[in-house]
Amino acid sequence: MMPRVWTVTPEEFRVAAHQLIDWIADYRATVTQRPVRSEVAPGWVRDALGAPPPEAPEPFEDVLQDLRDVVVPGVTQTQAPGYFAWFPSNASLESVLGDMAASGLGALGITWQSAPALTEMEEVVTDWLRELCGLTDAWHGAIHDTASTACLVALLAARERATAISEDRGGLQAESAPLTVYASTQAHSSVAKGVLLAGFGRDNLRLVPVDSVTYAMDVTALRHMMADDVAAGRRPAAVVASLGTTGTTAFDDVMSITEVASAHGAWVHVDAAMAGSAMLLPECRTLFTGVEGADSFGWNPHKWMGTILDCSLLYVRDVELLIRVFSTNPSYLRAASDGEVTQYKDWGIPLGRRFRAMKLWFHLRLAGAEAIRARLRRDLANAQWLAQAADADGEWEVCAPVALQTVCLRHHPAGVTDPAALDRHQQEWAERINATGRAFVTPAQVEGRWLVRVSVGAEATELQDVAALWQLCRQSVHVASP
Amino acid sequence: MMPRVWTVTPEEFRVAAHQLIDWIADYRATVTQRPVRSEVAPGWVRDALGAPPPEAPEPFEDVLQDLRDVVVPGVTQTQAPGYFAWFPSNASLESVLGDMAASGLGALGITWQSAPALTEMEEVVTDWLRELCGLTDAWHGAIHDTASTACLVALLAARERATAISEDRGGLQAESAPLTVYASTQAHSSVAKGVLLAGFGRDNLRLVPVDSVTYAMDVTALRHMMADDVAAGRRPAAVVASLGTTGTTAFDDVMSITEVASAHGAWVHVDAAMAGSAMLLPECRTLFTGVEGADSFGWNPHKWMGTILDCSLLYVRDVELLIRVFSTNPSYLRAASDGEVTQYKDWGIPLGRRFRAMKLWFHLRLAGAEAIRARLRRDLANAQWLAQAADADGEWEVCAPVALQTVCLRHHPAGVTDPAALDRHQQEWAERINATGRAFVTPAQVEGRWLVRVSVGAEATELQDVAALWQLCRQSVHVASP
Q: What's the complex ipTM?
């Protein structure tokens, strides 16, 4: 018999997809029944799934069964109320619906012509979020996969601006005066990675010290480092300002940084990957003062705001420059409408584009901005509750300002003063919490010492869940190490 | 009244999602009822959708209505049987189910620990496809968004290998001997873009001429260009070999290219974005001879094979080098299991990762490799049918070898010999076809002259659809221009 050429018809899809929807709804409704941190051993999933490549179609039930038995235990439950690790990685069900619509439609985003709606909806939603964040219309936004990519794109634009577009020249290899890039010691690891990938070289990355209380960039030190580099024949090309660092949610002073950078013509990229969601709240906008003076500004709706990954926004002021750096225009992608429309392929690295705007569009329309703001405010209040509880307890230290929803804790057991022992202790009590399966927190090293980050802000996390975590914290520090 | 903090509950999601599934199944079942090419004017979608940002939740019905009335007319129907444009951009319903499962799960891929199943399933499916393509286990694969990104990743690895890792040094800025990169004049536009983004500079990109019949790279010319560069004090760093060019599906001779490149220690990246799917067919493997000698090899299951976008595979041999170039290891991402597991964050640009493996896993399990191969073979046969029909008709020229499923056509009207008039004529008859709404083809300029690419391979395209297109072709050339 000839093998079937077309396997799943729309009618077969309908039946399977309805089953899958019920599975997803059940999964989301019962997310508290699983340990928050996945407890599978390295290789366990691979062993469970790694049969030879399937030659014949398998029943949908078998795939669904593996989803239940192998995949679910194999992932951290980021949607659980006890999830306080890394950063909120919300996947709101509104945005899941949008993602499903995008998948079902199966559109191809390569040029405007290939899917005008994919391009123009992206213009609409990036404008909506710009307005909701109180940014002026000097900014033009596009959706990238992650803040790492957005930061690399910004650094590439900075490099090209500093070298008057390498296209007609020898690229970075023709530069005689090395270009330098600046970011604080608390900047995300993607900044250093972007600097290396963009070819600046690690020797030309300056990690600027931070204030010992706020962990914000020391702008006086930045000024001196830039002056020293210029004196030594180097050229400052870019500064990455962090608004809401990964370690402690510290906010660099963008206004002052921009002032210093502009004296050297250096590009200022603002990385607000996690914290950008707070711009939706007018009362938080002072934390973002100065952003309007930057050259590029990135933040991730796929974090705290809750549009499902991957959904990272990059706004730039000088779109013309961006297009000069990222454009391609082969014959087979040309169309009559070229001059009048946005070609997002010329705004970043990939040519092909998913219909990512759909998940933001569904999310904003089905939730409404007011409900999203209410949830963010709930999380701010819950973080303050935890900080106050820890502050009031003499054994605990809240070791960084709680600007938003991350609380950095250190526990000081009576009589323990050795720094190494104290560091070990923090990692140990965090591990004890994580091993319970009821909550998941992340230890981190900040300026040389270990602390534990409690990142409040999963959609499902209510005050009672933060209170339960606080109780877990106090229990975990009093259990002797094995 | 306080705004609701949690908008869509799992039960509300269940109701809306079932409606959405029916919409998707209906849409897929009726895809032939719409013009293949979207006929909306620039700005029409934006005007239709661009209300102020929504403050309050809107009814799901309203969103669904806009999906029907605005979004669907606003996209090219890439899943329609009359879609012959650009390249097959199949979004198989098997893979849509997998994409939906990934969305519903909402897992976070940053490290192995954040979602072991996300990492290990990606290992499993990239291995499955490696085996199905007949590649040895010397290759290690990961999923990227697009071939543009995969090519940039390969070029960055090449740059770093050529400079013994820039991390400890001055980056590309410290190089005294310029690094050069080679690709054929028929290579995809993403190659030149990648060369510029990686900082090599346009002056250091060599476009190697192609054979005038096969459009494959002239390897003798490559050899001479490399020798000339070395004589001039430059250093060949990378060659991009195209297997299946965008214009005519030409195949470079990777075996010979690798031989020439290895004499200079240059990295060989194989770009088989569209054509890679053909490796699933043992009878097509000779087209890929020599791939095993390359350093990296990329192809897109999201094209002809039909796993929904974005799903681009990049295989490399030297994973150690890749990790040295792309790794980051901040404290907050460390875990006890680090040494034993794969950390895909260190294999490419982004840190955060969607559960992209799921769509490949669903696709392969629910369809089975045999059905996928049968469909690819159907498309090869249909393309041959069209090529033979055109060959047999004295007015038509099949102007490049039909290696796979793309047929490049030129029509020669009696008495027209002026090259510019002939070029215009090709664009005109293509436009007449596209304006019918019944099919969509792409004109392209190949080595200076315009032809029309018929890219056979939409999942829904059967022989009768190719025959209907052929009839459209013959009708379209005999209508007078306005």
A: 0.95
